[in-house]
Amino acid sequence: MTQPTQQTLRLGILGCANIAKQFARDVAGTPQVAIHAVASRDLAKAQAFAQQFQIARAHGSYDALLADNALDAVYVPLPNSLHAEWAIRAMQAGKHVLCEKPLALNLSEVTRMYEVARQHGVMLLESYPYWFQPQTRDMLACLSLDKIGEVRSMQASFGFSVGNPDTNIRMKPDLGGGALLDAGSYPISLIRLVMGCAPERVVAHATWASTGVDISMMATLFYADGRRAQMSCAMDTANHRRATIVGSHGTVETEYLNHTSNSHTHAWGYLPSQLRVRQGIANSIAFEEVHSATGSGFQFAAEAFAQVVREGDITAIERAASASHDIAATLDAIQESAKKGQLVTLRQ
Questions:
Q1: What pLDDT was estimated at residue 7?
Q2: Exposed, middle or buried: residue 213 (CB in 10 Å: 0-12, 13-18, 19+)?
Q3: What is the 3-state secondary structure (H, E, C) of the chain?
Q4: Is residue 3 scored above 80 in pLDDT?
Q5: Global model pTM greater than 0.85
Q6: 172 in catalytic set
Q7: What is the mean pLDDT of residues 137-160?
Q8: Per-residue pLDDT for 5 more than 80?
Q9: Residue that finishes a domain, picked among 76, 99, 129
Q10: Distance of CA 65 to CAs 61, 79, 82, 173, Å?
Q11: What contacts 147, CB < 8 A, 6 or more positions away?
């Protein structure tokens, strides 16, 4: 297992897209992670990025960054279609990888990525920023038997209006676009977190854009023990993000935001994220608001990644790998169901 030569994880960023800029901005203040390099296929773009965020080295190709021996790890914020290829190349170069969601386009790619990680003794972690939010930890605590009983069902949604549809990569099938992979991966990941396993079967319905990608999707997930979950996602709606988790004697509601703030006047537009729990079965029982620590999910994710790398915490990584496997299998089945118009059993 390759480990950092110092307490601070030395990180390189593979690409200069807007999400990479947000990541670099938010991670800049943490002592656990230091961004030492950035790469672009356009050297001038990498140099401008490095200057803006005070990064020491700019590389004019992705391969050059992977050959940078002064790096412990790589952050991959590339288009969905490039995640598997460049994460694998990074791991083959001996680098740990923090990869943006969805980890890859399908279960086959995810399986191969973790095979390479294990072969080369490096850590691979899929990054859903909300996963690492203190609010998510508090949400899981609300799901204890003594608060809401056994989880019976849940609904989770995420949608927004895609900007610049003529040029946006989310509208391009060859780049892994579509509502399911881009937005739907969030509620599916939350459903997996709450349910603790993959569903047995799914049925889904989609609306297709002229480019061939799904512009919206809804799915019902059926579990072997009788539980059910519902997911909706869209790229043609007002922004919304909400989950309701129903137990045998209680309910949890959350927005599960990636980035959170204590106020509505955050410099970067981060907002308070609601989490509330009702303990009891009657509608006359008031919901109790749960207040959690706030901050950037990018920063929380980077710090968590640095910790598991530093500690060689294979158990934590394998737990996350199991979740990523189930998420990919579920997304595959939903996509297949939407295209075929029928119930689909998951392939594991």
A1: 84
A2: buried
A3: CCCCCCCCEEEEEECCCHHHHHHHHHHCCCCCEEEEEEECCCHHHHHHHHHHCCCCEEECCHHHHHCCCCCCEEEECCCHHHHHHHHHHHHHCCCEEEEECCCCCCHHHHHHHHHHHHHHCCCEEEECHHHHCHHHHHHHHHCCHHHHCCEEEEEEEEEEECCCCCCCHHHCHHHCCCHHHHHHHHHHHHHHHHHCCCCCEEEEEEEECCCCCEEEEEEEEECCCCCEEEEEEECEEEEEEEEEEEECCEEEEECCCCCECCCCCCCCCCECCCEEEEECCCCCCCCEECCCCCCCHHHHHHHHHHHHHHHCCHHHHHHHHHHHHHHHHHHHHHHHHHHHCCCEECCC
A4: no
A5: yes
A6: no
A7: 96
A8: no
A9: 129
A10: 7, 18, 16, 28
A11: 141, 247, 250, 277, 279
Q: Tell me the pLDDT tens digit for each residue of 198-231.
A: 999 999 999 999 999 999 999 999 999 999 999 9
CATH number at residue 69: 3.40.50.720
Domain contains 4 = no
Distance (Å, rounded) from C-alpha 120 to C-alpha 1?
A: 8
**Main-chain phi, psi angles of 134, to 5 degrees:** -55, -30
Quick one: pLDDT at residue 1? 43
Paired with 87 in beta bridges are none
Q: Which of 21, 45, 95, 101 is catalytic?
A: 101
pLDDT at residue 108 greater than cutoff 90:
yes
Q: Does 50 lie in the same domain as 159?
A: no
* Range(s) of the domain holding residue 185: 134-257+260-294+328-345
Strand 201-208's sheet: what is its strand order?
Answer: 288-289, 275-279, 250-254, 236-247, 151-161, 228-234, 214-222, 201-208, 344-345
pLDDT digits (tens, 9 = 90+) for 284-325: 999 999 999 999 999 999 999 999 999 999 999 999 999 999
| Token pair 């019976």 in the structure block, residue | 152
